[in-house]
Amino acid sequence: MPYVLALDQGTTSSRAIIFDLEGRPLGLAQQEFAQHFPEPGWVEHDPMEIWHTQLQVARKAIARAGVEPGEIQALGITNQRETTLIWERTTGKPVHRAIVWQDRRTARACERLKEEGHEALFRQKTGLVLDPYFSGTKVSWLLENLPGLKERAIKGELCFGTVDSWLIYNLTGGQVHATDASNASRTLLMNLQTLSWDEELLRILGVPKALLPEIRPSAGLFGRTLPELLGAAIPITGVAGDQQAALFGQACFSPGMAKNTYGTGCFLLMNTGKAPVASKNGLLTTLAWQLEGEAPEYALEGSVFVAGAAVQWLRDGLGIIQSSSEVEALARRVESTEGVYFVPAFVGLGAPYWDAYARGTIIGLTRGSTAAHLARAALEAIAYQSREVLEAMEADAGLQLSELRVDGGASANELLMQFQADLLAAPKVIETTVLGAAYLAAVGAGLLSKAEISRRWAAGGRFTPQMPEAQRERLYRGWKRAVERARGWAEA
Ligand SMILES: Nc1ncnc2c1ncn2[C@@H]1O[C@H](COP(=O)(O)OP(=O)(O)O)[C@@H](O)[C@H]1O
Ligand SMILES: O=P(O)(O)OC[C@H](O)CO
Protein backbone atom coordinates (compact mmCIF):
# COMPACT_ATOMS: atom_id res chain seq x y z
CA MET A 1 0.00 0.00 0.00
CA PRO A 2 1.63 3.31 -0.99
CA TYR A 3 1.57 6.15 1.53
CA VAL A 4 2.35 9.84 1.25
CA LEU A 5 4.10 11.98 3.85
CA ALA A 6 3.04 15.64 3.87
CA LEU A 7 5.12 18.22 5.70
CA ASP A 8 3.31 21.46 6.50
CA GLN A 9 5.71 24.06 7.86
CA GLY A 10 3.38 26.86 9.05
CA THR A 11 3.99 30.20 10.71
CA THR A 12 3.20 28.94 14.18
CA SER A 13 3.85 25.22 13.99
CA SER A 14 5.44 22.39 12.05
CA ARG A 15 3.10 19.54 11.13
CA ALA A 16 3.45 16.20 9.43
CA ILE A 17 0.74 13.83 8.29
CA ILE A 18 0.85 10.40 6.70
CA PHE A 19 -1.97 9.92 4.19
CA ASP A 20 -3.13 6.95 2.20
CA LEU A 21 -4.12 7.49 -1.41
CA GLU A 22 -7.77 7.94 -0.45
CA GLY A 23 -6.66 11.09 1.39
CA ARG A 24 -7.26 9.55 4.82
CA PRO A 25 -4.88 10.76 7.56
CA LEU A 26 -3.23 7.81 9.32
CA GLY A 27 -0.80 9.56 11.63
CA LEU A 28 -0.31 13.20 12.56
CA ALA A 29 2.15 15.17 14.67
CA GLN A 30 2.40 18.89 15.29
CA GLN A 31 4.73 21.14 17.25
CA GLU A 32 4.60 24.88 17.88
CA PHE A 33 7.86 26.82 17.84
CA ALA A 34 9.10 30.19 19.10
CA GLN A 35 8.19 33.52 17.54
CA HIS A 36 10.85 36.21 17.99
CA PHE A 37 9.93 39.91 17.97
CA PRO A 38 13.32 41.65 18.30
CA GLU A 39 11.90 45.11 17.51
CA PRO A 40 8.40 46.50 17.01
CA GLY A 41 7.14 45.25 13.65
CA TRP A 42 9.93 42.66 13.27
CA VAL A 43 9.15 38.93 13.29
CA GLU A 44 11.80 36.20 13.13
CA HIS A 45 12.06 32.39 13.38
CA ASP A 46 15.07 30.26 14.23
CA PRO A 47 15.88 28.26 11.06
CA MET A 48 17.31 25.34 13.06
CA GLU A 49 14.14 25.20 15.15
CA ILE A 50 12.08 25.11 11.96
CA TRP A 51 14.17 22.22 10.66
CA HIS A 52 14.34 20.26 13.93
CA THR A 53 10.62 20.56 14.73
CA GLN A 54 9.78 19.56 11.17
CA LEU A 55 12.05 16.51 11.31
CA GLN A 56 10.73 15.45 14.69
CA VAL A 57 7.06 15.68 13.70
CA ALA A 58 7.79 13.76 10.50
CA ARG A 59 9.34 10.93 12.52
CA LYS A 60 6.45 10.98 14.98
CA ALA A 61 3.81 10.93 12.24
CA ILE A 62 5.48 7.89 10.64
CA ALA A 63 5.61 6.10 14.01
CA ARG A 64 1.99 6.97 14.84
CA ALA A 65 0.73 5.79 11.45
CA GLY A 66 2.53 2.50 12.01
CA VAL A 67 3.83 2.41 8.43
CA GLU A 68 7.27 1.31 7.27
CA PRO A 69 9.32 4.26 5.94
CA GLY A 70 9.99 2.17 2.83
CA GLU A 71 6.24 2.16 2.09
CA ILE A 72 6.17 5.96 1.79
CA GLN A 73 6.34 6.57 -1.93
CA ALA A 74 6.08 10.34 -2.01
CA LEU A 75 6.88 13.28 0.22
CA GLY A 76 5.15 16.64 -0.18
CA ILE A 77 6.28 19.93 1.32
CA THR A 78 4.09 22.92 1.90
CA ASN A 79 5.16 25.96 3.82
CA GLN A 80 4.62 29.46 5.12
CA ARG A 81 5.58 31.54 2.12
CA GLU A 82 7.87 34.59 1.67
CA THR A 83 9.78 33.91 4.90
CA THR A 84 13.40 34.49 3.97
CA LEU A 85 16.49 32.48 4.87
CA ILE A 86 20.13 32.63 3.86
CA TRP A 87 22.57 29.86 4.78
CA GLU A 88 26.10 28.70 3.92
CA ARG A 89 26.09 26.42 0.90
CA THR A 90 28.69 23.95 2.20
CA THR A 91 27.88 23.81 5.93
CA GLY A 92 24.15 24.55 5.89
CA LYS A 93 24.68 27.07 8.69
CA PRO A 94 22.13 29.92 8.66
CA VAL A 95 23.72 33.39 8.59
CA HIS A 96 20.77 35.00 10.43
CA ARG A 97 17.38 34.13 11.81
CA ALA A 98 14.63 33.73 9.21
CA ILE A 99 12.83 36.99 8.46
CA VAL A 100 9.16 36.08 8.61
CA TRP A 101 6.58 37.16 6.01
CA GLN A 102 4.88 39.36 8.62
CA ASP A 103 8.07 41.36 9.28
CA ARG A 104 7.85 45.10 8.46
CA ARG A 105 11.52 46.12 8.60
CA THR A 106 11.68 46.87 4.87
CA ALA A 107 8.74 49.30 4.79
CA ARG A 108 11.03 52.26 4.06
CA ALA A 109 12.93 50.31 1.42
CA CYS A 110 9.63 49.59 -0.33
CA GLU A 111 8.76 53.27 -0.22
CA ARG A 112 12.11 54.17 -1.77
CA LEU A 113 11.51 51.71 -4.59
CA LYS A 114 8.13 53.35 -5.20
CA GLU A 115 9.69 56.82 -5.16
CA GLU A 116 12.21 55.63 -7.74
CA GLY A 117 9.25 54.69 -9.95
CA HIS A 118 9.61 50.90 -9.86
CA GLU A 119 6.14 49.95 -8.67
CA ALA A 120 4.48 49.40 -12.04
CA LEU A 121 7.41 47.27 -13.23
CA PHE A 122 7.25 44.95 -10.21
CA ARG A 123 3.46 44.73 -10.46
CA GLN A 124 3.59 43.88 -14.14
CA LYS A 125 6.42 41.36 -13.93
CA THR A 126 5.62 39.63 -10.64
CA GLY A 127 1.90 40.24 -10.02
CA LEU A 128 2.84 41.52 -6.56
CA VAL A 129 2.92 44.93 -4.90
CA LEU A 130 5.92 46.65 -3.30
CA ASP A 131 5.24 45.64 0.28
CA PRO A 132 7.61 44.32 2.98
CA TYR A 133 5.53 41.10 2.95
CA PHE A 134 7.50 39.59 0.05
CA SER A 135 10.98 38.06 0.15
CA GLY A 136 12.84 40.38 -2.25
CA THR A 137 13.40 43.34 0.03
CA LYS A 138 14.11 41.01 2.96
CA VAL A 139 16.96 39.44 0.96
CA SER A 140 18.30 42.92 0.15
CA TRP A 141 18.10 43.84 3.83
CA LEU A 142 20.20 40.83 4.85
CA LEU A 143 22.77 41.48 2.10
CA GLU A 144 23.08 45.12 3.08
CA ASN A 145 23.08 44.74 6.84
CA LEU A 146 25.28 41.72 7.52
CA PRO A 147 28.98 42.51 6.93
CA GLY A 148 30.59 40.67 4.03
CA LEU A 149 27.39 38.91 3.03
CA LYS A 150 27.00 40.48 -0.39
CA GLU A 151 30.55 39.49 -1.46
CA ARG A 152 30.01 35.93 -0.26
CA ALA A 153 26.68 35.81 -2.10
CA ILE A 154 28.33 36.93 -5.35
CA LYS A 155 30.97 34.20 -4.96
CA GLY A 156 28.21 31.57 -4.65
CA GLU A 157 29.08 30.65 -1.07
CA LEU A 158 25.53 31.24 0.17
CA CYS A 159 22.03 29.97 -0.52
CA PHE A 160 18.83 32.00 -0.32
CA GLY A 161 15.62 30.12 0.13
CA THR A 162 12.07 30.30 1.34
CA VAL A 163 11.15 27.62 3.86
CA ASP A 164 10.53 24.98 1.18
CA SER A 165 14.11 25.36 -0.10
CA TRP A 166 15.47 25.21 3.43
CA LEU A 167 13.65 21.94 4.10
CA ILE A 168 14.60 20.41 0.73
CA TYR A 169 18.26 21.33 1.34
CA ASN A 170 18.25 19.71 4.79
CA LEU A 171 16.19 16.67 3.81
CA THR A 172 18.59 15.91 0.94
CA GLY A 173 21.70 16.48 3.05
CA GLY A 174 22.61 19.68 1.21
CA GLN A 175 22.39 18.05 -2.24
CA VAL A 176 19.51 20.11 -3.65
CA HIS A 177 19.06 23.89 -3.70
CA ALA A 178 15.66 24.30 -5.34
CA THR A 179 12.25 25.85 -4.93
CA ASP A 180 8.95 25.42 -6.74
CA ALA A 181 7.38 28.04 -8.95
CA SER A 182 4.53 28.82 -6.52
CA ASN A 183 6.98 29.74 -3.77
CA ALA A 184 9.22 31.61 -6.19
CA SER A 185 6.20 33.65 -7.31
CA ARG A 186 6.16 35.24 -3.83
CA THR A 187 9.69 36.63 -3.87
CA LEU A 188 9.37 39.74 -6.09
CA LEU A 189 12.22 38.19 -8.06
CA MET A 190 10.44 35.79 -10.43
CA ASN A 191 8.85 36.75 -13.72
CA LEU A 192 5.31 35.37 -13.62
CA GLN A 193 5.19 34.76 -17.39
CA THR A 194 8.51 32.99 -17.86
CA LEU A 195 8.71 31.41 -14.38
CA SER A 196 12.38 32.32 -14.18
CA TRP A 197 14.41 34.79 -12.10
CA ASP A 198 14.17 38.23 -13.67
CA GLU A 199 17.58 39.90 -14.27
CA GLU A 200 16.15 43.41 -14.22
CA LEU A 201 14.40 42.93 -10.88
CA LEU A 202 17.48 41.24 -9.41
CA ARG A 203 19.54 44.25 -10.43
CA ILE A 204 17.11 46.73 -8.86
CA LEU A 205 17.07 44.80 -5.59
CA GLY A 206 20.81 44.08 -5.66
CA VAL A 207 20.37 40.31 -5.42
CA PRO A 208 23.12 38.18 -7.07
CA LYS A 209 21.80 35.28 -9.11
CA ALA A 210 24.34 32.90 -7.55
CA LEU A 211 22.34 33.11 -4.32
CA LEU A 212 19.10 31.81 -5.80
CA PRO A 213 17.65 28.30 -5.91
CA GLU A 214 16.64 26.56 -9.10
CA ILE A 215 12.93 27.01 -9.89
CA ARG A 216 11.14 23.72 -10.58
CA PRO A 217 7.54 22.60 -11.23
CA SER A 218 5.43 22.06 -8.09
CA ALA A 219 4.96 18.36 -8.84
CA GLY A 220 7.91 16.27 -9.97
CA LEU A 221 11.06 14.79 -8.44
CA PHE A 222 13.10 17.29 -6.36
CA GLY A 223 15.42 14.72 -4.78
CA ARG A 224 15.42 11.99 -2.14
CA THR A 225 15.67 12.27 1.62
CA LEU A 226 18.87 11.05 3.30
CA PRO A 227 17.95 7.52 4.49
CA GLU A 228 19.17 8.16 8.04
CA LEU A 229 16.67 11.01 8.54
CA LEU A 230 13.35 9.20 8.09
CA GLY A 231 14.42 5.57 7.72
CA ALA A 232 14.30 5.47 3.90
CA ALA A 233 15.30 7.48 0.83
CA ILE A 234 11.86 8.96 0.21
CA PRO A 235 11.33 10.87 -3.05
CA ILE A 236 10.30 14.51 -2.59
CA THR A 237 7.75 14.89 -5.38
CA GLY A 238 5.49 17.82 -4.46
CA VAL A 239 6.33 21.32 -3.22
CA ALA A 240 4.07 24.38 -3.00
CA GLY A 241 3.40 27.40 -0.83
CA ASP A 242 0.77 26.58 1.77
CA GLN A 243 -1.97 28.73 0.26
CA GLN A 244 -1.51 27.32 -3.21
CA ALA A 245 -1.35 23.81 -1.74
CA ALA A 246 -4.64 24.49 0.05
CA LEU A 247 -6.20 25.55 -3.27
CA PHE A 248 -4.98 22.27 -4.76
CA GLY A 249 -6.11 20.22 -1.76
CA GLN A 250 -9.56 21.81 -1.99
CA ALA A 251 -9.66 20.62 -5.61
CA CYS A 252 -10.21 24.17 -6.90
CA PHE A 253 -9.07 23.11 -10.36
CA SER A 254 -11.44 25.18 -12.52
CA PRO A 255 -11.35 28.94 -13.05
CA GLY A 256 -13.68 30.70 -10.60
CA MET A 257 -13.27 28.15 -7.79
CA ALA A 258 -11.99 29.66 -4.55
CA LYS A 259 -10.94 28.78 -1.01
CA ASN A 260 -10.14 30.73 2.13
CA THR A 261 -7.63 29.43 4.66
CA TYR A 262 -7.93 30.69 8.25
CA GLY A 263 -4.52 30.27 9.87
CA THR A 264 -2.14 32.87 11.28
CA GLY A 265 -3.42 35.07 8.46
CA CYS A 266 -6.28 34.55 6.04
CA PHE A 267 -5.62 33.82 2.41
CA LEU A 268 -8.39 33.80 -0.15
CA LEU A 269 -7.31 32.36 -3.51
CA MET A 270 -9.30 31.95 -6.69
CA ASN A 271 -8.17 29.81 -9.60
CA THR A 272 -8.04 31.96 -12.75
CA GLY A 273 -6.81 29.29 -15.17
CA LYS A 274 -3.83 29.24 -17.53
CA ALA A 275 -3.27 32.98 -17.85
CA PRO A 276 -2.40 35.45 -15.09
CA VAL A 277 -5.17 37.97 -14.38
CA ALA A 278 -4.09 41.46 -13.23
CA SER A 279 -6.02 42.88 -10.28
CA LYS A 280 -7.59 46.33 -10.30
CA ASN A 281 -8.69 46.04 -6.69
CA GLY A 282 -5.57 45.51 -4.61
CA LEU A 283 -5.23 41.75 -4.97
CA LEU A 284 -2.15 39.80 -6.00
CA THR A 285 -1.64 37.71 -9.08
CA THR A 286 0.19 34.56 -8.17
CA LEU A 287 1.20 31.20 -9.54
CA ALA A 288 -1.20 28.49 -8.36
CA TRP A 289 0.95 25.53 -9.41
CA GLN A 290 2.89 24.12 -12.28
CA LEU A 291 2.56 20.39 -12.86
CA GLU A 292 5.36 18.78 -14.83
CA GLY A 293 4.58 18.76 -18.54
CA GLU A 294 1.52 21.03 -18.15
CA ALA A 295 1.00 24.76 -18.58
CA PRO A 296 1.18 26.67 -15.31
CA GLU A 297 -2.07 27.72 -13.62
CA TYR A 298 -2.60 31.05 -11.93
CA ALA A 299 -4.67 32.51 -9.10
CA LEU A 300 -5.82 35.81 -7.70
CA GLU A 301 -5.05 36.17 -4.02
CA GLY A 302 -6.29 38.34 -1.18
CA SER A 303 -3.75 38.16 1.65
CA VAL A 304 -4.85 39.17 5.16
CA PHE A 305 -1.88 39.30 7.52
CA VAL A 306 -3.54 38.74 10.88
CA ALA A 307 -6.44 36.35 11.44
CA GLY A 308 -5.80 33.50 13.92
CA ALA A 309 -2.80 35.52 15.11
CA ALA A 310 -5.28 37.92 16.75
CA VAL A 311 -6.57 34.98 18.78
CA GLN A 312 -3.00 34.05 19.61
CA TRP A 313 -2.47 37.60 20.83
CA LEU A 314 -5.51 37.30 23.14
CA ARG A 315 -3.78 34.19 24.49
CA ASP A 316 -0.11 35.26 24.65
CA GLY A 317 -0.29 39.07 24.70
CA LEU A 318 -3.32 39.58 26.97
CA GLY A 319 -3.60 36.20 28.68
CA ILE A 320 -7.42 36.25 28.59
CA ILE A 321 -7.56 32.70 27.23
CA GLN A 322 -5.27 29.74 27.83
CA SER A 323 -5.62 28.14 24.41
CA SER A 324 -6.81 29.39 21.01
CA SER A 325 -9.85 27.13 21.01
CA GLU A 326 -11.13 28.76 24.24
CA VAL A 327 -11.86 31.95 22.31
CA GLU A 328 -15.13 30.53 21.03
CA ALA A 329 -16.65 29.90 24.48
CA LEU A 330 -15.48 33.32 25.66
CA ALA A 331 -16.98 35.07 22.62
CA ARG A 332 -20.27 33.19 23.04
CA ARG A 333 -20.77 34.80 26.46
CA VAL A 334 -22.06 37.88 24.62
CA GLU A 335 -24.60 38.14 21.83
CA SER A 336 -22.68 40.88 19.99
CA THR A 337 -19.61 43.05 20.45
CA GLU A 338 -21.96 45.95 21.34
CA GLY A 339 -20.14 48.28 19.00
CA VAL A 340 -16.57 47.19 19.77
CA TYR A 341 -14.34 46.70 16.72
CA PHE A 342 -10.84 45.24 16.77
CA VAL A 343 -8.70 45.91 13.70
CA PRO A 344 -5.73 43.55 14.20
CA ALA A 345 -3.34 45.51 11.98
CA PHE A 346 -0.36 44.46 14.13
CA VAL A 347 1.88 44.27 11.07
CA GLY A 348 0.07 46.76 8.86
CA LEU A 349 -2.74 45.79 6.51
CA GLY A 350 -2.39 43.56 3.45
CA ALA A 351 -5.01 43.26 0.72
CA PRO A 352 -6.79 45.34 -0.36
CA TYR A 353 -5.13 48.27 1.51
CA TRP A 354 -1.38 47.48 1.44
CA ASP A 355 -0.76 49.90 4.28
CA ALA A 356 2.51 49.00 6.00
CA TYR A 357 1.90 51.70 8.61
CA ALA A 358 -1.57 50.71 9.82
CA ARG A 359 -1.51 49.41 13.39
CA GLY A 360 -3.81 47.45 15.68
CA THR A 361 -6.83 49.40 16.89
CA ILE A 362 -9.60 48.60 19.36
CA ILE A 363 -12.42 51.09 19.15
CA GLY A 364 -15.92 51.56 20.54
CA LEU A 365 -15.03 50.56 24.11
CA THR A 366 -17.45 51.50 26.90
CA ARG A 367 -17.50 50.82 30.65
CA GLY A 368 -19.54 47.73 29.85
CA SER A 369 -16.91 46.22 27.53
CA THR A 370 -15.42 42.92 28.66
CA ALA A 371 -12.94 40.29 27.54
CA ALA A 372 -15.87 38.52 25.88
CA HIS A 373 -16.62 41.52 23.66
CA LEU A 374 -12.96 41.68 22.67
CA ALA A 375 -12.84 37.95 21.91
CA ARG A 376 -15.94 38.28 19.73
CA ALA A 377 -14.52 41.36 18.01
CA ALA A 378 -11.31 39.42 17.23
CA LEU A 379 -13.29 36.64 15.54
CA GLU A 380 -15.52 39.05 13.68
CA ALA A 381 -12.44 40.92 12.42
CA ILE A 382 -11.31 37.74 10.69
CA ALA A 383 -14.62 37.54 8.85
CA TYR A 384 -14.73 41.27 7.98
CA GLN A 385 -11.26 41.13 6.48
CA SER A 386 -12.24 38.08 4.46
CA ARG A 387 -15.31 39.88 3.15
CA GLU A 388 -13.15 42.79 2.01
CA VAL A 389 -10.88 40.56 -0.04
CA LEU A 390 -13.80 38.55 -1.37
CA GLU A 391 -15.49 41.73 -2.62
CA ALA A 392 -12.26 42.76 -4.34
CA MET A 393 -11.99 39.34 -5.92
CA GLU A 394 -15.54 39.29 -7.21
CA ALA A 395 -14.98 42.73 -8.72
CA ASP A 396 -11.74 41.61 -10.40
CA ALA A 397 -13.20 38.37 -11.70
CA GLY A 398 -16.57 39.89 -12.62
CA LEU A 399 -18.50 37.07 -10.95
CA GLN A 400 -20.20 36.17 -7.68
CA LEU A 401 -18.94 33.19 -5.78
CA SER A 402 -21.55 30.55 -5.23
CA GLU A 403 -19.55 28.83 -2.51
CA LEU A 404 -16.33 29.26 -0.62
CA ARG A 405 -14.29 26.28 0.52
CA VAL A 406 -12.51 26.88 3.82
CA ASP A 407 -9.78 25.30 5.92
CA GLY A 408 -6.99 26.17 8.37
CA GLY A 409 -6.73 26.06 12.16
CA ALA A 410 -9.30 28.79 12.88
CA SER A 411 -11.91 27.24 10.57
CA ALA A 412 -12.62 24.86 13.46
CA ASN A 413 -14.33 27.81 15.13
CA GLU A 414 -18.07 27.45 14.47
CA LEU A 415 -18.96 30.91 15.69
CA LEU A 416 -16.47 32.37 13.24
CA MET A 417 -17.67 30.19 10.37
CA GLN A 418 -21.33 31.09 11.00
CA PHE A 419 -20.51 34.80 11.24
CA GLN A 420 -18.53 34.47 8.02
CA ALA A 421 -21.46 32.86 6.23
CA ASP A 422 -23.75 35.60 7.59
CA LEU A 423 -21.42 38.33 6.49
CA LEU A 424 -20.90 36.98 2.99
CA ALA A 425 -24.64 36.47 2.51
CA ALA A 426 -24.72 34.42 -0.67
CA PRO A 427 -21.84 31.99 -0.48
CA LYS A 428 -22.19 28.88 1.61
CA VAL A 429 -19.12 28.04 3.59
CA ILE A 430 -17.82 24.53 3.50
CA GLU A 431 -15.14 23.06 5.66
CA THR A 432 -12.62 20.39 4.88
CA THR A 433 -8.97 19.64 5.65
CA VAL A 434 -5.85 20.58 3.75
CA LEU A 435 -4.38 17.74 1.81
CA GLY A 436 -2.73 19.76 -0.88
CA ALA A 437 0.89 18.86 -0.24
CA ALA A 438 0.09 15.15 -0.13
CA TYR A 439 -1.95 15.35 -3.32
CA LEU A 440 0.75 17.32 -5.15
CA ALA A 441 3.35 14.77 -4.10
CA ALA A 442 1.06 11.94 -5.21
CA VAL A 443 0.62 13.64 -8.60
CA GLY A 444 4.39 14.22 -8.81
CA ALA A 445 5.02 10.52 -8.11
CA GLY A 446 2.44 9.45 -10.69
CA LEU A 447 0.16 7.91 -8.02
CA LEU A 448 -2.94 10.14 -8.52
CA SER A 449 -4.48 12.42 -11.12
CA LYS A 450 -6.35 15.71 -10.68
CA ALA A 451 -9.61 14.00 -11.65
CA GLU A 452 -9.14 11.42 -8.91
CA ILE A 453 -8.48 14.21 -6.40
CA SER A 454 -11.69 16.03 -7.42
CA ARG A 455 -13.65 12.83 -6.79
CA ARG A 456 -12.11 12.48 -3.32
CA TRP A 457 -12.95 16.03 -2.21
CA ALA A 458 -15.67 16.03 0.44
CA ALA A 459 -17.19 18.78 2.53
CA GLY A 460 -16.69 18.36 6.25
CA GLY A 461 -19.43 20.83 7.21
CA ARG A 462 -21.63 23.52 5.72
CA PHE A 463 -22.70 26.93 7.00
CA THR A 464 -25.50 28.97 5.47
CA PRO A 465 -26.24 32.64 6.06
CA GLN A 466 -28.90 33.55 8.62
CA MET A 467 -28.36 37.23 9.42
CA PRO A 468 -30.82 39.86 8.10
CA GLU A 469 -29.29 42.03 5.40
CA ALA A 470 -29.78 45.36 7.22
CA GLN A 471 -27.85 44.06 10.24
CA ARG A 472 -25.10 42.63 8.08
CA GLU A 473 -24.53 45.88 6.21
CA ARG A 474 -24.71 48.02 9.38
CA LEU A 475 -22.02 45.90 11.03
CA TYR A 476 -19.84 46.01 7.93
CA ARG A 477 -20.10 49.81 7.69
CA GLY A 478 -18.87 50.00 11.30
CA TRP A 479 -15.90 47.84 10.38
CA LYS A 480 -14.97 50.14 7.48
CA ARG A 481 -14.98 53.13 9.84
CA ALA A 482 -12.78 51.29 12.32
CA VAL A 483 -10.27 50.44 9.56
CA GLU A 484 -9.98 54.12 8.65
CA ARG A 485 -8.94 54.85 12.26
CA ALA A 486 -6.21 52.19 12.10
CA ARG A 487 -4.67 53.30 8.80
CA GLY A 488 -1.35 55.10 8.56
CA TRP A 489 -0.89 55.15 12.34
CA ALA A 490 2.83 54.27 12.50
CA GLU A 491 3.84 56.66 9.72
CA ALA A 492 4.47 59.55 12.10
N1 LIG B 1 -10.77 27.34 17.65
C1 LIG B 1 -10.07 28.37 17.18
N2 LIG B 1 -10.64 29.59 17.04
C2 LIG B 1 -9.97 30.64 16.53
N3 LIG B 1 -8.68 30.57 16.15
C3 LIG B 1 -8.05 29.40 16.26
C4 LIG B 1 -8.70 28.24 16.78
N4 LIG B 1 -7.81 27.22 16.76
C5 LIG B 1 -6.66 27.74 16.25
N5 LIG B 1 -6.79 29.04 15.95
C6 LIG B 1 -5.79 29.94 15.38
O1 LIG B 1 -5.40 29.40 14.15
C7 LIG B 1 -3.99 29.59 13.95
C8 LIG B 1 -3.36 28.27 13.68
O2 LIG B 1 -3.88 27.77 12.48
P1 LIG B 1 -2.92 27.03 11.46
O3 LIG B 1 -3.73 26.70 10.26
O4 LIG B 1 -2.25 25.93 12.19
O5 LIG B 1 -1.93 28.24 11.16
P2 LIG B 1 -0.44 28.38 10.60
O6 LIG B 1 -0.34 27.42 9.44
O7 LIG B 1 -0.42 29.81 10.18
O8 LIG B 1 0.53 28.10 11.68
C9 LIG B 1 -3.44 30.24 15.20
O9 LIG B 1 -3.24 31.59 14.95
C10 LIG B 1 -4.55 30.03 16.23
O10 LIG B 1 -4.63 31.12 17.12
O1 LIG C 1 1.40 29.92 8.03
P1 LIG C 1 0.13 30.22 7.38
O2 LIG C 1 -0.69 29.00 7.08
O3 LIG C 1 -0.67 31.27 8.07
O4 LIG C 1 0.47 30.82 5.94
C1 LIG C 1 1.30 31.91 5.81
C2 LIG C 1 1.32 32.36 4.37
O5 LIG C 1 1.88 31.44 3.52
C3 LIG C 1 2.02 33.67 4.26
O6 LIG C 1 1.94 34.15 2.95
Walk me through this protein's architecture:
- The chain has 492 residues and is of the alpha+beta class.
- The chain has two domains: 241 residues, 2-Layer Sandwich (Nucleotidyltransferase, domain 5); 214 residues, ATPase, nucleotide binding domain (Nucleotidyltransferase, domain 5).
- It is 36% helix and 23% strand.
- The chain contains 17 helices and 23 strands.
- The strands form seven sheets. The protein has a seven-stranded mixed β-sheet.
- Strand 1 and strand 2 form a beta hairpin.
- The longest helix is centred in the C-terminal third of the chain and has 27 residues.
- It is globular and about 60 Å long.
- The relative contact order is 0.13.
- The model has no long low-confidence stretch (mean pLDDT 93).
- The protein binds adenosine-5'-diphosphate and SN-glycerol-3-phosphate.
- It is an enzyme of class 2 (transferase).
- InterPro entries: ATPase_NBD, Carb_kinase_FGGY, Carb_kinase_FGGY_CS, FGGY_C, FGGY_N, Glycerol_kin.
- Its EC number is 2.7.1.30.
- Pathway: Polyol metabolism; glycerol degradation via glycerol kinase pathway; sn-glycerol 3-phosphate from glycerol: step 1/1.
- It catalyses: glycerol + ATP = sn-glycerol 3-phosphate + ADP + H(+).
N-end to C-end Cα span = 61 Å
**Cα-based radius of gyration, to the nearest Å:** 21 Å
By CATH, the topology of the largest domain is Nucleotidyltransferase, domain 5
Which class of secondary structure composition applies to the elements? alpha+beta
